[in-house]
Design brief:
Blueprint: H1 2-7, E1 10-15, E2 21-23, H2 29-51, H3 54-60, H4 66-118, H5 142-163, H6 166-171, H7 179-214, H8 216-236, H9 250-263, H10 303-312, H11 323-352, H12 355-361, E3 363-364, E4 366-367, E5 370-371, H13 378-403, H14 411-441, E6 450-453, H15 458-481, H16 488-516, H17 536-578
Parallel strand pairs: 3-6
Antiparallel strand pairs: 1-2, 4-5
Length: 579
């Protein structure tokens, strides 16, 4: 009887740090999850303290032009999130989530240390601008930029490794087969997003204030200390964590299906079930669908496959894939149109930490005697995200539940609403920038801070933040619920790449606009935003127009996705009824 009771306390698919079956009384739960949440809090605090104010460091300390500064930050942000795919492959196939977090937290710490050191030694940064020479500034040289790039991309590498694993490792601490722990895991996601928001809020207020009002050395040094604290807290929970074995990367499975389908492209398509390979048990099989039929050839058993199975008992996965594996790849392929249409939102997101911050740096930011750092205006962005989520949960959900019996907006509606609000944010940004440029034209070029309040920028920050609250949560819901069970980590990485590509598209747009509008040494995006020849308002209007076109494309893709899903569900139900 004791043995039976004890067996119910074991987690079937997890081990402790010694490799023995994990026991619920000594591993996992909230105590372990708290150590993991502390990593996310510290990572967000450190990363956002660097990211949000990086554009002012590039322009104000390294003396890069505004457009180039914006492009550097956008590219860095894009690569940071793209590296989550690399980290995900390492975690799923080789290192496991624990070692991935431990190693890349150390990498993040080293990168922030190097960034802090680069602000200490005078030879690693250009001299301050000389006011007596009409603010003539010396741009950072090759060595100085090299040290800067090495430091921020080391931080990016650390971010990519942490981001892909920390939420998954947190959920590993709860047993989904235990009703009590399953409920705790649902609560974990709420706390996870709360910690992200808190970390970001502290970053854009306290830490940016330290960077601007104390010194960059103390600001970036504090980021290093925070990441060291995160590493210590994470390692302190080593003996209490639950560990799960590496199951292999879903990316490998996708490549296997694609490679086999290409190899067998000359085979005739067959509807004969006996000629199709399937190894999954009946309850976990995914019914075959007609969409992307060319991929079905990866599951056709030819003579070579029969010979291999006779010799070894199992087929070569690079020569034959099961129907369920093929259908899982199809499910991922169906996500791509929606994935494409959400990239444009993060182009707008990129403006909030680049040009919007640069705009604020040229405007009056004082409240009495207190001067608000330009980067701290992102507090309106973060606050608006939390406000939008609160409005949905406390107002929209009860209202729709009462009128329609639904639990709030659907994931597609959330994304659509968010994309629409993001267009409004760019429209407001274009209007306010037009007003700011009028003031700039009537003010002496020697004046760096224009006589116009930076609080005119609040609407664009608030609208962009509200948009993110809807888009982000809608995306998470979409990518997790519409992806195969075995590819949830892959779908999370796919979601993160929308942020990555949004930053890349922003950087590409800036480069294209600068080149296309170059006339007589001037363009829409000049080095100095107070230049009367600048047309940042036109750039914002263009982004709004592109976003409106993108919204139309999204609505079409969402309608198509839902129609196809209904067809697949009907076919699956019909097949189940005939069995």
């Amino acid at each position: 009887m004791v043995l039976s009771d004890d067996s119910t306390m074991l987690v079937s698919d997890a081990t402790d740090y010694k490799g023995a079956p994990a026991h619920k009384s000594t591993t996992g739960g909230w105590l372990s999850a708290a150590s993991i949440l502390s990593v996310e809090l510290c990572e967000r605090l450190s990363t956002m303290a660097i990211a949000v104010n990086l554009v002012t460091y590039l322009q104000g300390t390294l003396h890069l032009p505004s457009a180039e500064s914006s492009a550097v930050v956008s590219n860095w942000g894009g690569i940071s999130f793209l590296l989550s795919l690399f980290g995900g492959i390492l975690a799923d196939s080789f290192l496991g989530r624990y070692w991935t977090i431990a190693i890349f937290s150390t990498v993040h710490f080293l990168g922030s240390c190097l960034l802090a050191l680069s602000t200490v030694f005078p030879k690693l940064r250009p001299p301050p601008c000389n006011p007596s020479l009409s603010n003539n500034c010396i741009q950072a040289n090759g060595l100085q930029m090299a040290v800067f790039y090495i430091s921020i991309y080391t931080v990016a590498l650390g971010l990519g490794g942490i981001k892909c694993s920390v939420s998954g490792f947190g959920t590993d601490q709860f047993d989904q087969k235990d009703d009590k722990e399953k409920a705790q895991m649902a609560s974990f996601f709420n706390k996870f997003y709360f910690f992200i928001s808190i970390g970001t809020l502290i970053a854009v207020t306290v830490f940016i204030y330290i960077q601007d009002k104390v010194s960059r050395v103390w600001g970036y040094g504090s980021c290093s200390v925070i990441m060291l604290l995160a590493l210590v807290l994470f390692l302190s929970g080593t003996k209490r964590y639950r560990y799960k074995a590496c199951l292999g990367s879903p990316i490998v499975q996708i490549f296997q299906v694609l490679v086999v389908a290409v190899k067998k492209r000359n085979l005739n398509y067959t509807s004969n079930v006996e000629q199709l390979y399937e190894t999954h048990p009946q309850e976990s099989r995914i019914p075959r669908t007609c969409q992307f039929r060319s991929l079905d050839k990866a599951a056709i058993i030819d003579d070579g496959d029969k010979d291999t199975m006779i010799e070894s008992g199992t087929p070569n996965p690079w020569r034959l894939c099961s129907v369920t594996k093929v259908e899982e790849v199809k499910m991922m392929a169906r996500l791509l149109p929606i994935w494409t249409t959400t990239i444009m939102f993060y182009v707008i997101h990129a403006q909030m930490i680049t040009y919007a911050v640069l705009q604020a740096s040229t405007m009056k930011r004082s409240i009495g005697t207190f001067n608000i750092p330009a980067g701290s205006f992102n507090v309106f962005f973060i606050g608006s995200i939390l406000l939008a989520l609160g409005i949905h949960d406390r107002l929209i959900v009860p209202l729709l539940k009462k009128k329609k019996g639904t639990l709030g907006l659907t994931k597609f509606q959330k994304i659509g609403v968010g994309l629409f609000i993001s267009i409004l944010s760019m429209v407001f940004a274009a209007i306010i920038e037009t007003k700011r440029l009028k003031v700039a034209k009537s003010t002496s070029r020697a004046v760096s801070i224009l006589p116009i309040s930076a609080f005119w920028l609040v609407p664009q920050f608030v609208l962009a933040g509200a948009a993110e609250g809807f888009v982000y949560t809608g995306q998470i819901d979409f990518f997790l619920t519409e992806s195969p069970k075995g590819m949830k980590a892959m779908s999370t990485s796919l979601f993160l790449t929308t942020i990555s590509f949004g930053f890349f598209v922003s950087s590409a747009l800036i480069a294209i606009i600068r080149k296309a509008t170059q006339r007589g040494g001037h363009n829409w995006l000049p080095a100095n935003l107070n230049n009367a020849d600048g047309k940042l308002n036109y750039f914002y209007a263009l982004v709004a127009l592109l976003s409106a076109i993108n919204l139309g494309f999204y609505l079409y893709c969402a309608k198509l996705f839902l129609r196809k899903k209904r067809q697949i569900d009907l076919a699956a139900n019909a097949a189940a009824n005939t069995q």
